[in-house]
Write a structure and sequence with these properties.
Strand order of the largest sheet: 8-9-10-11-6-5-12-15
Helix content: 25-40%
Catalytic activity: (6S)-5,6,7,8-tetrahydrofolyl-(gamma-L-Glu)(n) + L-glutamate + ATP = (6S)-5,6,7,8-tetrahydrofolyl-(gamma-L-Glu)(n+1) + ADP + phosphate + H(+)
Pathway: Cofactor biosynthesis; tetrahydrofolylpolyglutamate biosynthesis
Number of helices: 24
Number of domains: 4
Shape: elongated
Largest sheet: 8 strands, mixed
CATH architecture of the largest domain: 3-Layer(aba) Sandwich
GO molecular function, one term: carbon-sulfur lyase activity
Protein name: tetrahydrofolate synthase
CATH superfamily of the largest domain: Mur-like, catalytic domain
Distance between the termini: 61 Å
Radius of gyration: 32 Å
GO cellular component, one term: mitochondrion
Length: 854
């Protein structure tokens, strides 16, 4: 034998034979602790090496994983080890193969025949693993796994099905191991966990009263069934290298439910521990190598509350490998990104397979929230038959949609006549429906429910409808937090557009007519969500509430009213009482309604409206659980109020789905992740580029502009660079008065320093020569835009407020951005604050990110 430069031992006869035959490639592997290092000399012609997933009971009980990943070496070919004495070996009575594992960390290495001539090795720990070195082709002994285990989940790799091989049913090795149910001394259910050799054996109970009443331990109880524990497939790198398998299944259980008692040292029978990192302890059987537990300090608020990950491969569940009578599985594997980096093809197959498997298994129990009040009756199906889609494009759809915009002259005439939305607006929407068959809070609800969808497959999908859009119209209709595609938008747009146009019904609206722009999009959103079979739809009202197009829903799951301010005065009135009356119009008879702290006059109107409807109204204070380390962005009072409202609404939706968290319990990880990871585009958004930082917020009411300006002032208080202000609000004559509050809130309070060094007032036109259809707007005065009338009025007012500022008026967003960028020179970073209009903000973001949609 000789020793390579890295210390790997290779056999001279193997090397010489291989080199004489053909070119070879050396593949190297290493366990997590590094005590086992091995290499293989593989002829290049035999690459990629074929790998398979074995589901036999011995492999499961001997590794703790739901299956093992192996590749068989040709007879006489064996791996070369740096130090073979670091291997542990287990030969079961009557077995023809022994299992090899690292005696320090427990990593499964492979199997070898008694004469040590025939080897199988795990590909999961190879540093050279990739599509050119290993390729998974088969499941073996899948019939030995009751319920199929991972073989029923990972059924395809890419477009190709994975073949299954099983021996003759009469073969002893193919027999299905049946596990009997167990009960404890108190007669309650127990689930046995036992490694292959039996040296580690104990039981766990179902969640007890003590667990369910404990704010920490109850987090690990299934939100769908209090009799079950949460479970997940884990693809993290450390777990892969310490188990020797691509993935491992973990069940989350408190040590308090284990019998016999197990302490935080994880000592039980023949178990051995390995500290893989600071605060992390893992255990495995030192006799057969089976992984048993994973434990970390953050899941041990006290010894009595310690929760561990239990390897599901050693569970002896009567119902099968996945122990579905005991466990609720997350739909999305944990550390999925790690899995994608190691083996993208397998990880993608696992991700899609888990989702499909959970939907298939849980579908009978799922509840569709028909919050639209729409069924799929004869009218709906008849209408769909009439709405044959065409090959028309997204741009064709936008051209047709823009034709439904109400021209500025018509809006102005209605304004002068004092016309406002009324009950007739809703009746019109109901007529169109019969033919068919708010902001941050909505984003938070969508994000929370999305985390539950990823974790548990419920809800199956989430729809979100908001307005206005920032960059693309299709942003208004989202499924699972993503804007629908251009193709999907065009498809459903023309189904609705053509269907309404072909209608001859004249019972309530003219035959062949269509609703105006915003109402059409609302109508289309219902058609999209029903056609795409979403389970929960979150709707942000457009203008007001009482007569808004979204308010035709007769029995929503719940209604939420965020902070009410002065807005849309033409349509809603110019006092808080009048506006609150409209906002509270979304409250429905007998349905839950939630609101947060309001001005006294608004709060009283909401209370009265709820009483009139016989609705259960709950006024929410800021949820105390948000103060327990939950990172809300931006971390300001108004956003914590929005998050509080979102929590209540999400809990109502989950309750409808049979997954409501326990009242008063700590926020689950899905709630926390949903709140922390919510991306609210165009709201308190910070973007940095060379020499210039952008502070972007779509505030457009007096109250929100004051809050937004204070946010900018606080964020930049210690920044000495030049400050730039970009503002517009095109259609509100009173907007000029908003500048006073902005100036007061954003002032630097330094003698001789202007509030902003440079001020730009521009239109909402993104590019002077742009013809992008998503930004087309017929509802503004074209003459005013051409002459920059509004912008000149803003400039005059700002010159009065802050004579030291350099003020310019520009015709487009692109020119405003270019103007700001010229100050990104020198040693100090320039600071640009953009606010006043979501249309302006959308234009800025589309240029900064060169985005087609956000």
């Amino acid at each position: 034998m000789t020793q390579d430069n890295d210390g790997t031992v290779a056999h001279e006869d193997q090397k010489s034979t291989a080199q004489a035959a053909e070119k070879t490639r050396t593949l190297r592997a290493e366990c997590l602790c590094g005590k086992v290092r091995m290499s293989l000399e593989v002829p290049v012609s035999r690459l990629p090496v074929v790998a398979y997933l074995c589901h036999c009971s011995k492999c499961r009980y001997g590794t703790g994983s739901p299956c093992i990943f192996h590749t068989m070496l040709p007879e006489g070919t064996r791996p070369s080890f740096v130090d073979e004495s670091s291997l542990g070996s287990y030969l079961a009575p009557g077995a023809k193969y022994s299992y090899e594992f690292c005696s320090t960390c427990g990593c499964h290495i492979g199997g070898v025949s008694i004469d040590r001539k025939i080897w199988t090795v795990t590909p999961s720990i190879f540093k050279d693993y990739g599509p050119d070195t290993f390729q998974i082709r088969n499941h073996v002994f899948s019939s030995s796994a009751k319920g199929g285990g991972l073989s029923s989940i990972v059924t395809h790799m890419g477009d190709q099905p994975i073949n299954s091989w099983n021996p003759d049913p009469n073969d002893e090795t193919a027999k299905l191991v049946e596990c009997e149910p167990e009960v404890g001394p108190d007669g309650s259910d127990r689930l046995r966990a036992r490694c292959w050799c039996g040296g580690v054996s104990f039981t766990v109970s179902r969640p007890t009263t003590e667990v369910l009443d404990d704010t920490f331990m109850s987090r690990f109880v299934s939100p769908r069934d209090p009799r079950k524990w949460k479970a997940v497939i884990d693809a993290c790198d450390d777990c892969r290298l310490v188990t020797g398998t691509h993935v491992i299944g973990w069940a989350f259980v408190p040590l308090a439910v284990c019998e016999p008692a197990i302490g935080v040292d994880l000592a039980i029978g023949t178990s051995q521990t390995y500290a893989s990192s600071d605060g992390v302890l893992r255990s495995f059987c030192r006799v057969c190598g089976a992984t048993v537990f994973f434990s970390c300090k953050r899941r041990q608020p006290s010894e009595k509350q310690a929760v561990v990950d239990l390897a599901i491969g050693i569970l002896r569940a009567p119902d099968g490998v996945m122990a579905e009578d005991w466990l609720t599985w997350r739909a999305r594997p944990s550390f999925a990104d790690s899995g994608l980096r190691f083996d993208r093809e397998f990880a993608e197959a696992l991700n899609s397979g888990m989702k499909a498997w959970i939907l298939t298994n849980w579908q009978p129990r799922m509840i569709r929230i028909r919050s639209f009040g729409l069924g799929r009756g004869p009218v709906h199906h008849q209408f769909r038959r009439a709405m044959a889609s065409s090959a028309r494009s997204y741009n064709d759809a936008l051209d047709a949609l823009n034709s439904l915009q109400t021209p500025f002259a018509v809006i102005e005439a209605r304004r002068k006549a004092g016309e406002r939305p009324d009950e007739a607006s809703l009746e019109e929407m109901r007529c169109y429906l019969r033919r068919l068959g708010k902001g941050s809070t909505c984003a938070y609800v969508d994000s929370i429910l999305g985390r539950y969808r990823q974790a548990y497959g419920v809800p199956r999908s989430v729809g979100l409808f908001t307005s206005p859009h920032l960059v693309a119209v299709r942003e208004r209709i989202r499924i699972d937090s993503k804007p629908i595609s251009e193709d999907m938008f065009a498809k459903y747009f023309f189904q609705v557009y053509d269907g309404l146009g072909a209608s001859t019904d004249d019972s309530c609206v003219p035959p062949g007519s269509r609703p105006i722009y915003s109402r059409f999009l609302t109508l289309m959103s219902w058609h999209v969500f029903l056609s795409e079979r979403v389970d929960v739809a979150v709707y942000e009202t457009g203008v007001g509430g009482a007569f808004d197009a979204t308010n035709v829903i007769e029995s929503p799951v719940a209604a939420g009213i965020s902070t009410i301010g002065i807005d849309h005065t033409f349509a809603l009135g110019d006092t808080l009482k009048q506006i609150a009356w409209h906002k509270a119009g979304i409250i429905k008879t007998g349905r839950p309604a939630f609101t947060i702290s309001q001005a006294p006059e608004a709060a009283e109107v909401i209370r009265q409206r709820a009483a009139e409807k016989g609705a259960v109204l709950k006024k929410l204070d800021v949820d105390a659980r948000l103060l327990d380390g939950v990172r809300i962005r931006p971390d300001v009072d108004f956003q914590r109020k929005n998050a509080t409202l979102a929590i209540a609404l999400a809990e109502q939706a989950l309750d409808k789905l049979g997954m409501a968290p326990k009242p008063g319990a700590a926020l689950t990880p899905e709630f926390i992740d949903g709140l922390e990871q919510t991306e609210i585009r165009g709201r308190c958004e910070v973007k940095a580029e060379d020499g210039l930082t952008w502070y972007i917020d779509g505030a457009h009411t007096p109250d929100s502009l004051e809050v937004s300006s204070k946010w900018f002032a606080n964020e930049t208080a210690d920044c000495p660079g030049p400050r730039i202000f970009i503002f517009n609000q095109q259609s509100r004559s009173e907007a000029v008065d908003f500048l006073n509050a902005i100036h007061a809130a954003a002032s630097r309070h330094r003698v001789g320093k202007p509030c902003f060094d440079h001020v730009v007032f521009c239109t909402n036109v993104t590019h002077a020569s742009s013809n992008r259809r998503d930004f087309f707007n017929r509802q503004v005065d074209p003459d005013s835009i051409d002459k920059l009338t509004v912008q000149r009025r803003f400039a005059q007012r700002w010159a009065e407020l802050d004579p030291a500022a350099q003020v310019v008026v520009l015709p487009s967003v692109a020119e405003a951005i270019g103007h700001a960028r010229q100050f990104a020179v020198g040693g100090e970073t320039a600071l640009a604050y953009v606010t006043g209009s979501l249309h302006l903000v959308g234009g800025v973001l589309s240029i900064l990110e060169e985005a087609d949609a956000l």
